[in-house]
Amino acid sequence: MAEVFDMDKLDSAFGGRNLATFEYSSYAEQMKEDDKKMQSNDAGSDASSEASFYSGTDSPKHGDGEHGATKKACAT
Q1: Boundaries of every domain in the chain
Q2: I need a labelling partner for 26 at 20 to 30 A (CA). Which of 4, 56, 60, 69 fits?
C-alpha cells in the first residue's frame, strides 16, 4: 500500500500515519471533486456502461429457462 499512497498524508483511519481527525464533510467534498474529474476523463469510454452491466437490466435472455437449462416436465 505504501507504493500507492503517501503514508504520511493518508489518514490514520485508512492505515496511514496522519493523526488528523477524520472529517466526513471534507472527505465527501474531496470525493465529489474526484468523481467530477473521473467523469470528465471517461466521457468517451465504454466504462460508463459498466453500471448497467452489473445492474442486470441488460442481462441476456436465456432460451428454455434460467441459464439455458432445459426444464423438465413434472409428472403428477
Answers
A1: 1-38
A2: 4
